[in-house]
Amino acid sequence: MKLVNVRLSDEDAAKVADLRQQGVELSEVVREAVRARHLALRPPLRPGDVRPLLDAIYARHPLEVEQERSTVDTTDRRAVRQLVRKKLQGRRSG
Amino acid sequence: MILLDTNVLVALVLPKDRLHERAASDLERLARQELRVLPSVMTEVCFLLDERAQRGRLSELLTAIRAGPAVEPPWERVFQWLARYAEHEPDWTDGCLVVSATRDQRVWTYDHEFRAVWRRLDGSRVPLAVSQR
């Protein structure tokens, strides 16, 4: 992991002190800001890119036959809830 | 800004999902929009996509479509909404999506209840990013 030093004005340093006092982890604030700015740098996806992009992702991560479909209807809230509950119960009893 | 629902992400990751074609077509149309995912949606998606390769696809997809995390709405408002619709047994994720929805922050979902049943706290329709069939 790399360490990054940042110079702050007195005003920003005071804000950092306030954030720390509120229990905010400054390193996480910086990481989030970096990720958001980095996302904004990338050119937006064009409609024509979508299918080739999806195909490339599928090719890089092949699935077993039984993994290719969702085991529940994802628009059925109760079915999704049942699946989540089952998995949580399995985790607790395991 | 567009908030993605669980069914959209699962459909985009699994090409044999019954909603896949629709989701891929809608992504072509919405590709240039700013896409966001709520933490509760991501939790549901990871329960549904629990295999390593499925999550590998999900991770790459989110990066490729430049989807970032959305900020969860105030819990108080979500609980207020859940209480209003208690008879329909909505989930936390439904509440977060509806409460977060605004004209500038539409919901991309294939769950018909967002059109037919749910309303925002002010009684207005939930602004949706896609038409529902």
Provide structural commentary:
The complex is a heterodimer of chains A (94) and B (133). Chain A has 94 residues and is an all-alpha fold. In chain A, 60% of the residues lie in helices and 0% in strands. Chain A has helices at residues 10-21, 26-41, 50-60, 77-93. The longest helix of chain A is centred in the C-terminal third of the chain and has 17 residues, at 77-93. Chain A is flat. The mean pLDDT of chain A is 86. Chain B is of the alpha/beta class and 133 residues long. Chain B has 7 helices and 4 strands; from the N terminus they run E-H-H-E-H-H-E-H-H-E-H. Chain B has a 4-stranded parallel beta sheet. In chain B, helix 5 (75-84) crosses helix 6. Chain B is globular and about 40 Å long. The relative contact order of chain B is 0.19. Chains A and B meet through helix 2, helix 3 and helix 4 of A and helix 1, helix 2, helix 3 and helix 4 of B.
List keywords for this structure.
heterodimer; A: 94 residues; mainly alpha; 4 helices; 60% helix; flat; B: 133 residues; alpha/beta; 4-stranded parallel beta sheet; 8% strand; globular
Number of helical stretches of at least 4 residues of chain B: 7
Largest interface: A-B, 36 and 39 residues
Q: Give helix and strand order of chain B, one letter per element, not per position.
A: EHHEHHEHHEH
Q: How many strands appear in the DSSP assignment of chain B?
A: 4
Tally of DSSP β-strands of chain A: 0
Helix content of chain A: 55-70%
Q: What's the Cα radius of gyration of chain A?
A: 22 Å
**What distance lies between the first and last C-alpha atoms of chain A, to the nearest angstrom?**
34 Å
Content of β-strand of chain B: 5-15%
Low-confidence stretches of chain B: none
- Structural class of the helix and strand makeup of chain A? mainly alpha
* Helix/strand structural class of chain B: alpha/beta
Helix content of chain B: 40-55%
Strand count, sense and closure of the main sheet of chain B? Answer: 4 strands, parallel
What is the ordering of alpha helices and beta strands of chain A? HHHH
